[in-house]
Amino acid sequence: MTRHNRVLKTASDVLIETRAYARAGLLGNPSDGFFGKTLSISVRNFGASVTLWQSPELHIEQQEADANTFRSIFHLVDTVGQIGYNGGIPLIKAAIRKFTTYCLEEGIRLPNRNFTIRYSSSIPRQVGLSGSSAIIVATMRALMQFYDVEIPLEYLPTLVMKSETEELGITAGLQDRVIQCYEGCVYMDFQRQLIESRGFGNYERVDPQALPKLYLAYNTDMSKVSGKVHNDVKARFERGEPLVVDTLSQIADLARQGKEAVEKQDYSTLNELINHNFDLRTRIYNIHPVNMQMIETARRLGASASFTGSGGSIIGIYRDDEMLNRLFVDLQKLNARVIKPYVV
């Protein structure tokens, strides 16, 4: 039994419980969507859990995020701002459909058994910590266990991604799904030839104990920031715009350098790489002022700082407890919460 799965036997049934954790990109963001390289960690401070048990009919339990009853129009506005227009049920439906399709295509016969499934999540929403894909990963793990199906670990992230891109029309890359399936710290190489020929890249585990002192900060009020910063990097990359192609190539190579720095425990170099990752990003992406303020505040205090994903959360190296305490205080003034990511 893996550490993220549990089977609880009761007098009347068997409960399957699975979990998947938040993630933070350390280096290489956002090159994973452009056949690049990344170095990422799973953040066990936050997670999504799924409970599944056999039942006469297939039933997905509605949670608070799925409710359609509100106290007022302002309650509706705040709720949509915090969790989006859809809760977790569309994610679970997409995971179930993609799992079933995979089994049919692989000639795996599923027994005629139904189940009830329930989910919960403590991953902050709308701040780039991959709460949606965590629900899908946990659902896939529960389905694999319930139907006794083994999906190869290297392909599972691709199946999770397809649940979002093909079933729900969500733009998604492989990085988040890889680290949530593998956990710990993982170096990923998404070279085009591998992705297009077999559907997944090369994924290499890195010893989390070699990581330096990391902090993670996420803005607790990002959902109330009006409007989204427009970016058209994908179209510019596909047109072959030199600035975009060259910048993303440089960002990808930072992940390779970062992997070597972690293995050598060369934290001074790693610190510089994290800062450089974000600085390169600003060449081709528009950065929301709220996010920029978080980055600048952390750097002013002596810490390195870069995005964990697409924005809303930052990650970096801090020197000592005094610096960490200053990060707590100064980032709190920006409505940002600071944590020490727990990586196993």
Automatic annotation (TrEMBL):
Q: Which InterPro entries match?
A: GHMP_kinase_C_dom, GHMP_kinase_C_sf, GHMP_kinase_N_dom, Glucuronokinase-like, Ribosomal_Su5_D2-typ_SF
The reply to whether Metal-binding figures as a keyword in the UniProt entry is: no
Q: Which residues form a coiled coil?
A: none
Top-rank taxon, per record: Bacteria
Going by the UniProt record, its keywords in alphabetical order are: ATP-binding, Kinase, Nucleotide-binding, Transferase
* GO terms, molecular function: ATP binding; glucuronokinase activity
Per UniProt, residues of the GHMP kinase N-terminal domain are 92-184
Where do the GHMP kinase C-terminal domain residues begin and end?
260-322
Protein name, as recorded: Glucuronokinase
Provenance organism: Siphonobacter aquaeclarae
